[in-house]
């Protein structure tokens, strides 16, 4: 083979759809298995894998440059929020750690953008389905190995082996709440696969069962609340998709009003809801963290302490952990984490990112014929609700999922187009 033909072959391979598919699977897999990767090969190994993956994605993107539709690829909300996080390095209490945290955030932002650009929505659903199916099966297998066959914890993965007593289990994710979050988005993804007939019926049913078992065994109250919100959203979308186009805008407005009333009611009845879910212990943990955070928020309310992502062993985070008597990797709320790290401005930008992405994806899901458009909307509902009690939406796989959904929604419909289309349907 001559040099020219070898270069042409490499260029063809770099621009192939098969490479894009493989890189998408690896990106999703790495983003949602960071705990397991760190446990096996440490931070240096994870960062090396992440760097190599980004380099390969860059090569693939350059090779497929002309095939990409660049119009509206990035919502401004992502650019502004990430830009504000990057700017926080200037006033950060720990500038070197903030620079590393921003680089880590940007890395998963790049992966999310690559996935959203290279694959259409059904291909993304399939990629998430394949990866999450594998991770849940591995998690359950290791839990059975630890709790039933060996009756010993797998310490380096954080698996305690409690499956014999019906949980809580952690799988390869390091915490029951993260496993619950992954199991929930997997469950919704598997249902979309089933509805779109993109996998065989038997495989879809088995996948739903696996996700359901994982969800039950986590015993995560946060996940149950998010599941309830997702089911309500799914029912609302089911009704909207079958409503006459002329009345759909009125139904949207009615649902918005009902949603606001529901949120206010949930807040007023929060203590009773916590008691029903037997979540008093988890709520008390979060309350302790938020109480300690409030002591430092007043010092930098507008700009925050500087973005760091996962909490480092640095002041003031170590002070908060000492005061609460336990280590924390986050503020246990994405909204409060954003407020603490990048201030009021950053928190507002983060809420705007979530809200605009949800509005766009919701309008798409309620107007497009294919059921696959409901996937981004449901993912964002889960992220919005989970972010009240966990910081997954700011970290690794959760952030990448948010970027993927936001970019896909922005590419398919800008907010101006969405409102114009809805009003046109209502009027005509």
TrEMBL record:
The keyword NADP does not apply. InterPro entries: O-antigen_ligase-rel_domated, WaaL-like. Residues 207-351 form the O-antigen ligase-related domain. Its main location: membrane. Keywords: Membrane, Transmembrane, Transmembrane helix. It is a multi-pass membrane protein. GO terms for cellular component: membrane. The chain crosses the membrane at residues 43-63, 70-93, 99-119, 131-159, 171-192, 204-237, 249-269, 338-358, 378-407. It comes from the Bacteria. It is found in: Membrane. The keyword Cell inner membrane does not apply. This is O-antigen ligase-related domain-containing protein. It comes from Agromyces mediolanus.
């Amino acid at each position: 083979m001559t040099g020219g033909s070898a270069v042409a072959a490499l260029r063809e391979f770099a621009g192939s759809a098969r490479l894009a598919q493989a890189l998408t699977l690896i990106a999703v897999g790495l983003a949602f298995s960071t705990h397991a990767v760190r446990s096996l090969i440490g931070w240096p190994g994870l960062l090396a894998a992440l760097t190599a993956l980004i380099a390969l994605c860059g090569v693939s993107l350059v090779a497929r440059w002309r095939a990409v539709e660049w119009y509206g690829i990035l919502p401004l909300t992502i650019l502004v929020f990430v830009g504000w996080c990057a700017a926080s390095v200037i006033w950060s209490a720990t500038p070197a750690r903030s620079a590393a945290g921003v680089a880590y955030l940007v890395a998963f932002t790049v992966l999310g953008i690559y996935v959203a650009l290279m694959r259409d929505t059904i291909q993304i659903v399939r990629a998430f389905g394949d990866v999450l199916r594998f991770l849940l099966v591995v998690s359950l297998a290791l839990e059975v190995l630890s709790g039933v066959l060996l009756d010993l914890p797998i310490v380096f993965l954080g698996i305690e082996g409690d499956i014999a007593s019906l949980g809580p289990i952690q799988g390869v994710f390091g915490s029951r709440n993260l496993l619950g979050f992954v199991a929930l988005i997997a469950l919704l993804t598997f249902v979309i696969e089933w509805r779109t007939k993109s996998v065989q019926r038997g495989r879809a049913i088995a996948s739903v069962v696996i996700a359901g078992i994982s969800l039950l065994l986590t015993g995560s109250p946060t996940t149950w609340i998010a599941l309830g919100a997702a089911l309500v959203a799914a029912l609302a979308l089911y009704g909207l998709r079958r409503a006459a186009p002329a009345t759909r805008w009125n139904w949207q407005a009615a649902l918005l009003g009902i949603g606001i009333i529901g949120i206010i009611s949930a807040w007023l009845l929060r203590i009773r809801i916590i008691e029903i879910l037997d979540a008093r212990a988890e709520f008390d943990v979060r309350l302790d963290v938020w109480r300690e955070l409030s002591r430092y928020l007043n010092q930098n309310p507008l700009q925050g302490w500087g973005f760091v992502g996962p909490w480092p062993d640095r002041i003031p985070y170590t002070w908060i952990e000492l005061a609460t008597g336990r280590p924390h990797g986050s503020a246990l709320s994405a909204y409060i984490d954003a407020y603490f790290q990048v201030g009021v401005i950053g928190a507002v930008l983060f809420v705007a990112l979530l809200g605009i992405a949800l509005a766009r994806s919701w309008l798409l899901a309620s107007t497009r014929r294919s059921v696959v458009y409901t996937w981004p909307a449901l993912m964002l509902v889960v992220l919005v609700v989970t972010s009240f009690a966990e910081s997954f939406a700011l970290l690794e796989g959760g952030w990448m999922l948010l970027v993927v959904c936001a970019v896909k929604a922005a590419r398919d419909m800008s907010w101006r187009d969405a409102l114009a289309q809805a009003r046109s349907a209502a009027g005509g």
